[in-house]
Amino acid sequence: xxxxxxxxxxxxxxxxxxxxxxxxxxxxxxxxxxxxxxxxxxxxxxxxxxxxxxxxxxxxxxxxxxxxxxxxxxxxxxxxxxxxxxxxxxxxxxxxxxxxxxxxxxxxxxxxxxxxxxxxxxxxxxxxxxxxxxxxxxxxxxxxxxxxxxxxxxxxxxxxxxxxxxxxxxxxxxxxxxxxxxxxxxxxxxxxxxxxxxxxxxxxxxxxxxxxxxxxxxxxxxxxxxxxxxxxxxxxxxxxxxxxxxxxxxxxxxxxxxxxxxxxxxxxxxxxxxxxxxxxxxxxxxxxxxxxxxxxxxxxxxxxxxxxxxxxxxxxxxxxxxxxxxxxxxxxxxxxxxxxxxxxxxxxxxxxxxxxxxxxxxxxxxxxxxxxxxxxxxxxxxxxxxxxxxxxxxxxxxxxxxxxxxxxxxxxxxxxxxxxxxxxxxxxxxxxxxxxxxxxxxxxxxxxxxxxxxxxxxxxxxxxxxxxxxxxxxxxxxxxxxxxxxxxxxxxxxxxxxxxxxxxxxxxxxxxxxxxxxxxxxxxxxxxxxxxxxxxxxxxxxxxxxxxxxxxxxxxxxxxxxxxxxxxxxxxxxxxxxxxxxxxxxxxxxxxxxxxxxxxxxxxxxxxxxxxxxxxxxxxxxxxxxxxxxxxxxxxxxxxxxxxxxxxxxxxxxxxxxxxxxxxxxxxxxxxxxxxxxxxxxxxxxxxxxxxxxxxxx
Length: 698
What we know:
Elements: H1 7-14, H2 23-27, H3 53-72, H4 86-99, H5 102-105, H6 114-139, H7 144-161, E1 169-170, H8 173-187, H9 198-222, H10 228-231, H11 234-256, H12 260-266, H13 271-281, H14 288-310, H15 315-318, H16 322-337, H17 364-367, H18 370-399, H19 405-419, E2 429-430, H20 432-440, H21 447-462, H22 472-487, H23 490-499, H24 503-518, H25 521-540, E3 545-550, E4 557-559, E5 573-578, H26 584-587, H27 590-600, E6 618-622, H28 631-646, E7 650-654, H29 658-667, H30 669-673, E8 678-679, H31 682-697
Parallel strand pairs: 5-6, 6-7, 7-8
Antiparallel strand pairs: 1-2, 3-4, 3-5
């Protein structure tokens, strides 16, 4: 084929009878040429193409006419074969791929990634299986099998709907503790009565909590409230996580010292009660063999983890599943030496079937505990999402892709809703530690999570009988290892806040910690969330304003608190720039803030101090930064303008955009002040003011 066709042949090539547009063409990623077969189509970049500009431009213009017809709706909505246009079918599929990410990555999955995903999945599963058993039995006070189902089912759903490629979704220590506290509180609410079947009650409580958690997360995502992660401060989360770590450690030291039976007799309630219980009985009534096994297992776990950190460059050391190793070895030793006969509590027989395998979560048994568990469900939803979004953002930044907090909420919510159909399933959210390990070991897609969930399911049905002789104190040791991870970041954050003199953050972190320890987890986080939200509201309710002054020798005005050269050169004139949109929250204090600027400027002052400035005769507003004004703000601004007008203060508004101007018209502000009060810029306002002064003096 001739590489340099004539203009006529070029136009014929560029205008075939039926062009099959590709997705790239319609979305702007390529030209129409890229969709043509290799039939001699050329572009202006084609070497030796001298006169192709006209043909290229003609073809593109003709193509644009067709597209305009479709956009205008002048043509038929169906193509010649009776099907919707290709661009519409592509657009629909693109939305499906957006909202269900697995429809994008599964069809295009490259098996070159499978080795890394498979290795990461196996390693995370070897850590997750004993962890889930520990969380369910030791923290949530449920059957170990519920922890395993919680580590499998929500993870599969998240893998299909989530936007993070490395996030591992499974039960978390803090959240399992909250479920356990709710279970314990309801079971022992009345000391004079005892449930006929405590196990069934525990399963019902956990099920209804998980369902509510899933529903709350799903609705938060559906209504696009994923910005919650930027509303609640990191200091609050750090104080909560640290307090929960201390609570968990105190809880787990009891079985590690072999004091479980004595605890059932004395029944210490609060965390402080349990701490005093440990101090009084740890060295007098502890079971020696249980204590040796517990702290021996913990020492081995810490030693292996330290070696892994010290020898990261040796992959065969870094990838050692220390938790799995300790579980297997301790189970074998327990069986060999008959530790159960010496008074060491073991896991024992774990029935797989928790009643009917799949049940609708909203039934008579679970609805009985709906109201009593809603506060716990809300707390778990908030804390679980914050932890998950931190882990997701860390991995997204590390591997160079973006995530959607709203779709994360939907995926996490859907996972928990589906999980709640299996009785007793615990709430499941993302883990920072497991997700980081997932990425370190080569996990590049959610295939790693699918591998993990598959292995956990296999372990649920085939591995549990082999863990019959697993000492329960070893499970407590595993949880204590997790506690060390939770506590590890506290010194760094506390030092950072101290260095930054962030006293409010330090106070919030300390308050969360103390309230959680002294009262309970719910009180601690609830009070801190309320305080955090009040601080956000307080900051957002103070409109950002500054006084402008003229740069000498120019017609430019700059903030006087930021530019030493800026001067207020006209006596009695106050020029104020409002630096954000106006709404009901920040406009409520507009009158007070303006009055303070008028009397005190930017100087620090006490309301009882004498004014530092004279009352303004003219007030000029610079509103270039105001894009929107809601109805409440417009109403308050009208009252403000009316007040100044009654005082005899001249009022000018400059740099007003069309949207706010329309709001001012509807609110009657334009009628109140007159069109002459609305000027293009500050220079025009100052010229008008100076002219009126001259006229008055003349």
